[in-house]
Write a structure and sequence with these properties.
- The complex is a heterodimer of chains A (about 300) and B (about 350).
- Chain A is α/β, with parallel strands linked by helices and about 300 residues long.
- Helices cover about 40% and strands about 20% of the residues of chain A.
- Chain A has a six-stranded mixed β-sheet, with helices on both faces.
- In chain A, a hairpin with a 2-residue loop joins β1 and β2.
- In chain A, about 45% of the residues are buried.
- The N terminus of chain A is likely disordered.
- Chain B is mainly α.
- Chain B has two domains: about 80 residues, no CATH class; about 240 residues, MetI-like fold (Orthogonal Bundle).
- Helices cover about 75% and strands about 0% of the residues of chain B.
- Chain B is flat, with a radius of gyration of 29 Å.
- The chains are: A alpha/beta (about 300), B mainly alpha (about 350).
- Chains A and B meet through α4, α5 and α8 of A and α10 and α11 of B.
């Protein structure tokens, strides 16, 4: 276990993965305008801007999040911070229509990704989720699948017909992109559950990126991990933002200040009231000179 | 000041206490056994009464002795351990006795001839139960083929799709079905076929229908439990990859629960394999091999054992021997299935967190 952790921090290993990544944004940015996306293997696309307008979220009669309006910038990491139960995870799950999977959940308002309101009546939730990937709090690789199958799961489960070689390439690229390739390349056929927690989480990130989404949502991706594994994921997030719009929910203030460009602070006025977006600004301003008193109290650790 | 504080603290319980010698409990039990056997020899008190007396006396004795030497807490511990162990012994005793009796008596005819010959034209000694073994396998096989798809699909509906009142109603009726007396299932299947094929109809497949009625609720319940323990985060991971719900169920949820589902089905098969009453009505009795469940009567092991025992010829012993051998065969079959179920669960059961 220690060896693999060292590998994370090994500058040589990072460099090779960096190299692997550089050919990706370059090609994607230049290629994107051309309509070369008809093949089943989608080329990495330009990250998307998300415009949220007056979003209200409910669980049955419980009003969880109240009138959030914000713009999430492409190719930036947006961190959502706030105390437990203030609705930031609920908000995050509304960005790829996972919120509605909870029985009784309801949504009011607009979430516009790339000019399309994802809550419009003719939009298919499944199609939305193919564009907006998600990484969860605890690593959740599929226990019945090997490492390889886990990474390819998004494609295999949707029964995309594709050549073995093309699939191999996608798996390798996703694993390299998740800084995991060197650690698992010799045991791709072993079950994903055999990896360490940090490796499993990077496997889940590889799984999410293998379907080439435009947005990557992360719900406290490091809360179950030790500091070394956390740092590896944060490095990875920095690399990934070249290709994706990233939204990350975190309870870890240092993580928000280290890893994000923009920070949004969620808060409740009082218990039982819905959560609100109190302030959204550059991470630097939120942590040095926030406009709102509640934000200042929270980031300076005076409450919450 | 400090002395006052210390005085306020209650005295600690001593960490040292007496203990019974390691041979103590054993000697106590052996002693009461010897006394009981002695009483059995000299008086005409019944064995059962003496056994109960010996158990009660040794339990009470152990508690009292421990209480004097070791204190109340340890004595309670010994007392409860004794109680729980006795309850276990009480529960297991009939099973052991049954297994012993069936094995001992069934062994007389548990031979090559028994498995290769049918009871066709057999009067007195000889003959076998191959027709009944084949019949059991065919009837339960057809019942399994019918009820497994229905049961698993119903469980998927209940666990993955069902909502609200309809789900509650179906769950309730599945529970009710679990409690249906098997004879009622047999009468239902018989009445159903008699409606179309006329009264007095006896077919293997009617028995299969009766058994399926008994099996479906078991399969539904066990599959539902297995689907329940598939963690929700796996479903969410699949949805987040843009996988539609039905594919998530087929390719993520079912494979994760597969080991448990298969072993649940095996146990359900084992459960219906020994049914007698519904088959008595629906398949009738038959002394030759019949492989076609849609054509005429069919014999099976349970009914065979029943008939050999109920209507023996003269002399009776060969008939009784065949009945016991049939019972033993049935137990072996059921045990094999149960072991297989455990094996499958161990081998294919997925570690879920």
């Amino acid at each position: 276990m220690d060896d693999t952790k060292k590998l994370d921090r090994d500058p040589a290993a990072l460099r090779t993965e960096g190299d692997a990544l550089t050919d990706r944004p370059a090609s994607s940015v230049e290629v994107a305008p051309e309509p070369e996306r008809d093949s089943s293997e989608k080329v990495a696309s330009v990250a998307k801007r998300i415009e949220v307008t007056d979003l209200d979220l409910y669980y049955g009669s419980f009003h969880a999040v109240s009138s959030v309006s914000m713009t999430i910038q492409p190719n930036k990491v947006t961190a959502l911070i706030g105390s437990s139960g203030c609705g930031k995870s609920t908000f995050l799950r509304s960005l790829n229509r996972m919120h509605e999977l909870v029985p009784g959940a309801r949504v009011d308002g607009q979430v516009v990704i790339d000019g399309q309101d994802i809550y419009a009546s003719d939009v298919d939730a499944v199609a939305v989720r193919r564009q907006v990937g998600m990484v969860f709090q605890s690593p959740n690789p599929f226990p019945t699948m090997s490492i390889y199958e886990n990474v390819a799961a998004g494609l295999l489960l949707n029964s995309k017909k594709m050549k073995k070689a093309a699939l191999n390439e996608i798996v390798e690229r996703a694993l390299r992109g998740a800084n995991l390739w060197n650690e698992v390349k010799d045991r791709l056929d072993r079950p994903g559950g055999g990896l360490s927690g940090g490796q499993q989480q990077r496997l889940c990130i590889a799984r999410a990126t293998a379907v080439e989404p435009e947005v990557l949502l992360m719900d406290e991706p490091c809360s179950a991990l030790d500091p070394v594994a956390t740092l590896a994921i944060e490095d990875l997030i920095q690399q990934l933002k070249a290709n994706y719009t990233i939204v990350i929910v975190t309870h870890n203030m240092q993580q928000a200040s280290r890893a994000s460009d923009i920070t949004g602070f969620f808060n409740l006025e009082e218990t039982g009231k819905p959560g609100q977006l109190v302030e959204l600004d550059t991470t630097h301003r939120i942590f040095s000179n926030p406009a709102n008193k509640a934000t200042e109290d929270y980031v300076s650790g005076r409450f919450g | 000041m400090s002395t006052l504080d210390i005085a306020g603290i209650p005295p600690r319980t001593p960490m040292v206490q007496g203990s019974l010698p390691s041979w103590g409990p054993g000697a106590l039990f052996a002693g009461s056994a010897v006394v009981a056997l002695g009483l059995l020899a000299v008086t005409d008190v019944s064995f059962a009464l003496l056994l109960v007396g010996a158990v009660v006396v040794s339990g009470a004795g152990l508690y009292a002795w421990s209480r004097v030497v070791e204190g109340a807490r340890t004595a309670t511990d010994r007392g409860v351990t004794f109680l729980v162990s006795s309850a276990f012994a009480l529960a297991i005793a009939p099973l052991v006795s049954l297994l012993y009796t069936v094995t001992a008596r069934g062994f007389a005819r548990f031979d090559y001839q028994f498995f290769t010959e049918s009871a066709r034209n057999v009067v007195g000694e000889g003959g076998g139960a191959s027709h009944a073994i084949v019949g059991t396998l065919v009837i339960t096989g057809v019942a399994t083929l019918a009820s497994v798809p229905i049961g698993i699909l119903a469980a998927i509906y209940l666990q993955e799709y069902g909502r609200g009142r309809l789900k509650r109603a179906i769950t309730f009726f599945v529970d009710v079905m679990t409690g249906i007396p098997s004879i009622v299932a047999g009468l239902f299947a018989y009445a159903l076929f008699a409606l179309f094929l006329g009264p007095g109809i006896r077919l293997g497949v009617i028995g299969s229908v009766a058994l399926a009625v008994l099996m479906i609720p078991i399969v539904v319940r066990s599959t539902e439990e297995m689907l329940k323990i598939v963690p929700n985060h796996l479903r969410e991971a699949s949805y987040a990859l843009g996988v539609p719900k039905w594919r998530t169920v087929v390719k993520v949820v079912l494979p994760t629960a597969l080991g448990g589902i298969i072993s649940g089905v095996m146990l359900a098969v084992a459960r219906i394999m020994g049914e007698t009453a519904p088959l008595l009505i629906t398949t009738g009795a038959f002394s030759s091999i019949n492989l076609n469940p849609t054509d005429g009567r069919m014999q099976n092991l349970a009914v065979f054992a029943f008939n050999e025992y109920k209507n023996p010829g003269v002399p009776r012993d060969p008939y009784f021997d065949r009945a016991w051998a049939a019972a033993l065969t049935l137990i072996v079959l059921v045990m094999t299935l149960s072991l297989l179920a455990r094996l499958i669960y161990k081998r294919f059961g997925t570690e879920t967190r």
